[in-house]
Amino acid sequence: MEFRQLGSSGFKVPVLSLGTGTFGGTNEFFKGFGESDVKEATRLVDIALDAGMNMFDSADIYSGGVAEEILGQALKGRRERAIISTKATFRAGSSPNDVGSSRYHLIRSVEGSLRRLGTDYIDLFQLHGFDAVTPVEETLNALDDLVRSGKIRYIGCSNFSGWHLMKSLAVSERYNLARYVAHQAYYSLVGREYEWELMPLGHDQKVSAVVWSPLGWGRLTGKLRRGQPLPEGTRLQNAMTAAGGPQVPEEHLYKVVDALDEVAKETGKTVPQIALNWLLQRPTVANVIVGARNEAQLRQNLGAIGWNLTPAQVAKLDAASATPSVYPYWHQKQFTERNPFPTS
């Protein structure tokens, strides 16, 4: 397992981590991801640890906290072998203060996650989204206090716009507060908007990408084919789950799938392995979160590492997945001499 440095920190993480959105499945939305109980989750954790994939990602809202509870039980007695990342910000209760990135909510969220996970520290704690109501200074002061108390080791964010992240980094620098070292972002061959602004920002400011939904919300599993019905067992069959993820024009999807099929024939690898390997060669990417409903899916995802696509194959996938940029990015691309694409 390859390990990469996380942002501007001295902390290293494996290139693949196991997402726990498939743990629990206690509500309609998360049933679309999976319904692993403690026994099955423990088996997945066993396989991951044996492969050196010792990072596990969760969130307080995954199945209403049940995913964290299951992860905690699966790691019982071997917490020291694991890197745990989790998230908070989204609504986790009915109270007016059970949402957001206020000091009140973040401290309660961290304490709740620690209890459910059965640990006394979180390795990487991330804001699940930007809270435009709470002052950035309040949020970062609360996170800094949690770092200084030892309850969390590193901080990150997720689903931020470029200005959200840059403003936060500026506040951290101004007041000497803990700094975001990771941005958990959506990025895939059918969703490359991360490259427009967040990637150059991450490259410049040394904020690593931790990629969620690298298979385009279940579209790049190798099961979807032009003119064929949705296969059984995909999250896209669950209307609520499908609507809650990125939307991809059908023709664009199948153009990418066709290119993936061509590369699959050349390499002997599967479609998801190729899609994951492509991501691992992109600038700023430190870690890619993979989900698995079962042991077979997890072992297939582990097959995405230990080899690399050729430059020609990367170029083929780049061309098939390219989409027109919105302003000002299409304009900036005309001035590549002074706006080069990140290279590492």
TrEMBL record:
Protein name (database record): Aldo/keto reductase
SUPFAM superfamilies documented for this protein: NAD(P)-linked oxidoreductase
Residues forming coiled coils: none
Source species: Archangium lansingense
Pfam families in UniProt: Aldo_ket_red
InterPro entries attached to this UniProt entry: AKR, AKR_Detox_Biosynth, NAD(P)_OxRdtase_dom_sf, NADP_OxRdtase_dom
Domain NADP-dependent oxidoreductase: 16-320
